[in-house]
Design goal:
Layout: E1 2-3, E2 11-15, H1 21-36, E3 40-43, E4 49-50, E5 53-54, H2 60-66, E6 69-74, H3 76-85, E7 93-97, H4 112-120, E8 124-136, E9 143-145, E10 148-152, E11 160-166, E12 169-176, E13 178-182, H5 190-193, E14 205-211, E15 221-224, E16 229-233, E17 240-244, E18 248-252, E19 257-272, H6 277-285
Parallel strand pairs: 2-3, 2-6, 6-7, 7-19
Antiparallel strand pairs: 1-8, 4-5, 8-9, 8-19, 10-13, 10-17, 11-12, 11-16, 13-14, 14-15, 16-19, 17-18
């Protein structure tokens, strides 16, 4: 993560997955700040009407081709959607956090104008995050995730049976509710809820975490992100599901092989210059709250 010199954003897109009054109000504030600096503002369809003034509406393809920056307004779900749609195409993403935790979105609505002005004047840091992609052997298409890929039974309290390979080497055979393969970004998402470790964003690694394994000796496994992680659903297993960032879900049959690896696409995540990983996570996760200073 490093500082960048002053940068000129000529066209900025506003993005959100919803359009309630609060989001529209924040979008209108962004529009006023940007337009006053001579920056053209466009929007996705959810934000087409702000303060009774319609903004130019562009398709996903047009935004990816023409925008210098996309501002995502919402929580981490909005950031994940924005990252897959536009960040995967090389467009920098800046998040305004309206959620509860917001590990990806940094700007606080309370001091939005000041923070946004600093960013568009070049006072920001760029944090590069990698995507993970999954493919099913013989089906061809690759699917992207920023946080994690989860292989599971698709039903409550039902297990699947699978073999795990890393770089073609056999690791283990297991019966479990499923398996979470998370990136460093996703280490604070679903994996963290399952007892997985927090991985610093500068360390490009996967965390492989069994979900409720039928074993007393199972632990999370950290491997380098250049590794190829392969899961083969056993022929005597139940059918499974694959979930990418809890958004895209598709089925996997018995005997099928799922390959997961680092994508060649990267996310350019924009942070204010004052952003600090440890401070942000200390505040959001409540680190050290039980310590009483005398």
């Amino acid at each position: 993560m490093g500082s960048l010199k002053a940068n000129k954003f000529n066209k900025v897109a506003l993005f959100s997955t919803t359009s309630n009054k609060r989001i529209l109000s924040i979008a209108d504030q962004c529009k006023e700040v940007l337009c006053n600096r001579g920056i053209k503002v466009i929007a996705t369809h959810k934000l087409k009407r702000i303060s009774s003034q319609e903004l130019p509406i562009y398709s996903q393809i047009e935004i990816a081709k023409q925008s210098d920056l996309v501002i995502a307004i919402g929580g981490d779900g909005t950031m994940l959607s924005c990252s897959r749609k536009f960040g995967s195409e090389g467009i920098p993403i800046l998040g305004i956090n309206l959620g509860n935790l917001g590990f990806l979105a940094d700007l606080n609505p309370k001091n939005l104008t000041e923070s946004l002005l600093k960013v568009i004047e070049g006072e920001f840091k760029e944090d590069r995050r990698f995507f993970i992609e999954a493919s099913i052997l013989g089906e061809g298409s690759n699917r992207l995730a920023l946080n994690e890929i989860v292989i599971h039974s698709g039903a409550i309290a039902q297990m699947i049976e699978y073999d795990l390979f890393i770089d073609e080497d056999f690791v283990w055979s297991q019966k479990a509710d499923g398996l979470i393969v998370s990136t460093n970004t996703g280490s604070t998402a679903y994996s963290l809820s399952g007892g997985g470790p927090i991985i610093h964003p500068s360390l490009e690694a996967f965390c492989i975490l069994p979900m409720f394994p039928h074993s007393l000796s199972s632990s999370p496994l950290i491997v380098r992100s250049e590794s190829k992680v392969t899961v083969v659903l056993k022929k005597n297993s139940k059918k499974g599901k694959i979930s990418l960032d809890s958004a895209e879900i598709f089925s996997i049959k018995r005997g099928q092989e799922v390959c997961m690896k680092q994508s060649n696409k990267f996310l350019k995540l924009i942070h204010p210059t004052g952003h600090n990983f440890y401070e942000a996570y200390r505040n959001k996760l409540g680190w050290g709250l039980g310590i009483i200073k005398e």
